[in-house]
Amino acid sequence: MSEVMNHLDSDYILTLSCPDQKGIVHTVSGVLLNAGGNIIESSQFGDPDTQLFFQRTHFSLQSNQKLDALRSDLGVEAMRLKMNWSLRAANRKLRVMVAVSKLGHCLNDLLYRWRTRQLPIEICSVCSNHQDLEGLANSFNVPFHYLPVSESNRSAQEEALLHLFRSQDIDLLILARYMQILSPSLCAELHGKAINIHHSFLPSFKGAQPYRQAHQKGVKLIGATAHYVTNQLDEGPIIEQDVERVSHHVSSREMATIGAEIESRVLSRAVRWHAEDRLFMNGSKTVVFS
Q1: Inter-residue contact 290 to 278 (CB < 8 Å)
Q2: Which class for 111: exposed (0-12), middle (13-18), buried (19 or more C-beta within 10 A)?
Q3: pLDDT at 125 (0 to 100)
Q4: DSSP β-bridge partners for residue 61
Q5: Which residue stretches of the chain have pLDDT < 50?
Q6: What is the pTM of this model?
Q7: What residue spans define the domains of the chain?
Q8: Which of 165, 185, 223, 288 is the most buried (most CB within 10 A)?
Q9: Which residues pair with 18 in a beta bridge?
Q10: Spatial separation of the C-alpha atoms in residues 228 and 62, rounded to whole Å
Q11: pLDDT at position 152
Q12: How far apart are CA 175 and CA 197, in angstroms?
């Protein structure tokens, strides 16, 4: 175990994006080589539509003393290539806050995967506009914050949520069936730092009981979509989707159960990929090195 931990302590994840051009991979590899780095895994993609280039590189560095020099060299090349980049220790766990309302299937799944170390995250707190899931959070010893919402206090409630996000040094807000619309200002504040999950019927079957509505229409495919949150309701850059086929034998209640299972696994994939720096926002879509 100690050998594994020592290895991970010297592992880093480098992510970058920039205008697509010749020599990017060569340049980055050279900087890592000069620092004594060893590339373990690398993925890259040049988008012909947006003319942007994306790269994720997992590498090891034998001497942490060379880390500052590596950052300096990357900074120089970033100026030349007009590159946005990020470098972090591979074993750093993402600090997460989960927002929920009354439906607990996604929260329960995230808590279980976190507790069993299936997700590289640290769930720091759960916030909700209802108290229904406080017991579930408490059973995992996760702090629960009750933030009721009404038309008169909506702005103050968002300020309280944002205060929790900042004071707990949260990296990612997960809307795990949080049935509230975030204001444009909060969406802007959390740009690239908030993930939502919903059924994939949208824009059809809006509002309450979407699976009952779908059942009444004889829908044959049901699914879920995880996406980044923007001020365009449920239309942010898509991260992951999944579907399952159903037939006339499936009741609306059974359909909702199947849908809940799809939502849970789609959300967990999206959270994992974000936590592992495998996601890049690329205009109205995403690049996913899954």
Answers
A1: yes
A2: buried
A3: 98
A4: 37
A5: 1-7
A6: 0.90
A7: 2-89, 94-288
A8: 165
A9: 53
A10: 36
A11: 87
A12: 7
Residue 1: per-residue pLDDT: 33
The DSSP bridge partners found for residue 172 are: 96
DSSP strand E in 108-220: where? Answer: 121-128, 144-146, 172-175, 194-199
In three-state secondary structure terms, 20 is coil
- What kind of architecture, by CATH, is found in domain 2-89? 2-Layer Sandwich (3.30)
Strands in 29-171 per DSSP E: 37-47, 52-61, 84-89, 94-100, 121-128, 144-146
The C-alpha atoms of residue 139 and residue 112 are separated, in whole angstroms, by 11
Residue type, 80: R
Query: Is the CATH code 3.40.50.300 the one for domain 94-288?
Result: no
Instruction: Walk across the sheet containing 194-199 and list its strands.
Output: 144-146, 121-128, 94-100, 172-175, 194-199, 221-228, 238-245
Q: How far apart are CA 51 and CA 68, in angstroms?
A: 31
The answer to whether 171 is a known catalytic residue is: no
Catalytic residue among 169, 234, 242, 277: 234
The residues, any chain, with a CB within 8 Å of residue 261's CB and separated by 6 or more, are 105
Looking at residue 136, what is its pLDDT? 98
Residue with tokens 């019927």: 201
